Structure formats: C-alpha cells, structure tokens
Amino acid sequence: MPSASEAKVILASAVFIACTLTSAVCAALLIRAYRKTRQRLLFWSALCFTGLCLNNALLFVDIITLPTIDLSAWRLIPAVLGIGALCYGLIMEVN
Q: Average pLDDT in the 53-73 region?
C-alpha cells in the first residue's frame, strides 16, 4: 500500500495526464473541424488548445518529473500564446 505522499503524487500525475490528453483531444477535434469547414475561429481555438496542451504537459514535467527545477515561466509561455491566439481570433475575425 502506498504512503500518503506517494498516493498524492500518483493522483496528481493522473490528473495532469488527464488534463493534457483532454486538451490534446480538444485541439485535434478543432483541427479536424477547421479542415472541414475552414472557419477561422476554429483555427484560433485549435491553437489555443494546443498551447494549453503544451502547458499541461510542461506542468507534469515541472511538478512530477523535475520537482527540483522551477519551470513555471517556461510552462506559462504556451498558455499565454494560446490564449493570445484565441483573443486575436475573437477580435480580428469578427464578421
């Protein structure tokens, strides 16, 4: 039976992996929809979810794989770029 700290690490790993996979599936579905319809907002949304997927993957690496190294600044970059892409698409693609 794992100790309480090991159980927390296992649970945190499962949550981080689930969030990463969910973001990746959302990005893939948005890309597929964009290829079919060519609606630009789907493209910007796919970029946003791709950034969020990278953010979640880097969060897993930061917290679980390399806990002694602080990657918080690096993991924020894809999230900010993804949200920025979505904001740009929402503002500039108004028709």
A: 94
